[in-house]
Amino acid sequence: MEYLPFRSETLVLPYDASELQARLTKVIRPVRNKYQQKTGEDVDSSDHLFNGVFENDEFTISRIIKQPENFLPLITGKIEATSVGCILFLKYRMFFSTNLFLGFWSVVTFLMTLLFVIGYNNYLYATVCFGFGVVNYSIAVANFNIQVRQSKKLLNKVLN
């Protein structure tokens, strides 16, 4: 299991950069800004698999979903042409609001742990607070990893 809600990978592909751009453009439904998320109900074409922005050999996309997924990854990519194909650099990360949620509750549970240890010398409550923080973080990272696997699977389907 990965312990940070961030992934990156590099794919070496046998296609031209322009062919890869054409493949991706075909499955990306444009949005006005790269942080906007549309649901599957708004889909105007079944060919689109991702919402996103594609500009100047770089893109930011997320999977089109039918129900809310709090830990859906935001995928940023960059295409670089080579003499025998292209290289695709991918980064998977959480949306800003999900990072804010995770950071807020991690800080709150840590501060409560410190309060119970330093302020009240109550190690049982401190352990419970710290445990809730660890469980919250673990669930978030596990769900993020599940969503990354699903997004990778869909992206690999487009690339192959």
> Structural class of the helix and strand makeup?
alpha+beta
Secondary-structure element order, N to C = EHEEEEEHH
Low-confidence spans: pLDDT under 50, at least 5 residues? Answer: none
Tally of contiguous helical segments: 3
Q: Compute the CA-based radius of gyration.
A: 20 Å
Q: N- to C-terminal separation? A: 26 Å
* Arithmetic mean of pLDDT: 91
Main sheet attributes: strand count, strand direction, barrel closure: 6 strands, mixed
Spatial order of strands in the largest sheet: 1-6-5-4-3-2
Shape descriptor reads: elongated
Specify the helix fraction band.
40-55%
What tags apply to this protein structure?
single chain; alpha+beta
Q: Could you walk me through the main structural features you see in this protein, from its secondary elements to its overall organization?
A:
- The structure is a single chain.
- With 160 residues, the chain is an alpha+beta fold.
- The protein has 3 helices and 6 strands, in the order βαβββββαα.
- It has helices spanning 17-27, 96-119, 123-159; strands at residues 6-13, 28-30, 50-55, 58-63, 73-81, 86-94.
- The chain has a 6-stranded mixed sheet with strand order 1-6-5-4-3-2.
- Helix 2 (96-119) runs antiparallel to helix 3 (123-159).
- The protein is elongated, with a radius of gyration of 20 Å.
